Amino acid sequence: MIISFDIGGSAIKGGVAHSEANITPLGRRPTPKDDFAAFVETLRAIIAETGEKPTRLAFSIAGVVDPDTQRLTCANIPCIHGRDLAADLEAELGLPVVIANDADCFAMAEADLGAGRGHRIVLGAILGTGVGGGVVADGRLINAAGGFAGEWGHGPALASHAGNPPVAIPAYPCGCGQKGCVDTVGGARGLERLHKTLHDIDLSSQEIIDDWLKGESQAARTIDVFIDLVASPLALTINITGATIVPVGGGLSNVEELLAELDKAVRQRILRKFDRPLVVRSECRVEPGLIGAALLGLKAEAHLAA
Prior knowledge:
Blueprint: E1 2-7, E2 11-19, E3 22-30, H1 36-50, E4 56-61, E5 64-65, E6 72-73, H2 85-93, E7 97-101, H3 102-113, E8 121-127, E9 131-137, E10 140-141, E11 161-162, E12 167-168, H4 183-186, H5 188-199, H6 205-213, H7 217-241, E13 246-249, H8 256-267, E14 279-281, H9 288-305
Parallel strand pairs: 1-4, 4-7, 8-13, 13-14
Antiparallel strand pairs: 1-2, 2-3, 5-6, 8-9, 9-10, 11-12
């Protein structure tokens, strides 16, 4: 039995997994951000709630494990930032631990149980507050030991002009320390930033989407530029990875018309041509972090048994 955890800045969610077909969510508890002892005790309480002793713990975390040092970068939860978290938790809880980035867990869930079933290479893409991603090949997470593979949202990749007719696009500063990242325009906050740049109007991403669906001209212009900016780096990532399906999660994935436009633009720009949708809505809509972490734990147990 695996217990999986989805660790977020506001809540820790737990789940029990006996097999791929038997993954059950548990409750959620507030995340102790500044007290590692309290963080560990919260995990103990969730484990005790199951009434069973697990064989392994698996974690989905909004952070990145350094593949060389195994130390975690997780700025929004200071008490675990900079730790070799797997080793620390194994020492505290007496159980083997596997940890992965939340976007990687999303990709794993989609590859095994979602839109990526039957595909050898799956690129999971997040279009939420920002942009993220992960890659699964032959059922294995590329970032199994940590790292940034699949993070197509970062790097100075934005075009200097976009849309039809083209308009100049600033190289917006990104939270990663660079400028011109897809993350600065590709998520909900990026869509709002683009609309402000193009029209000097502050609207929420939902308001922009609603106006676009109604045929409002300024919103249509913003979406045109958004699609142009996002489609090219996504197409490049598909060319590099060889992905044959791109399940999309995050808030913007709920707008099917937007995904359809992005899919059309991406398929026009990739080398391998598909006559079917390539960029699609994710299918694991409930707790993909828990599911993906559970799958990673189950695979680790299966490998150990083999």
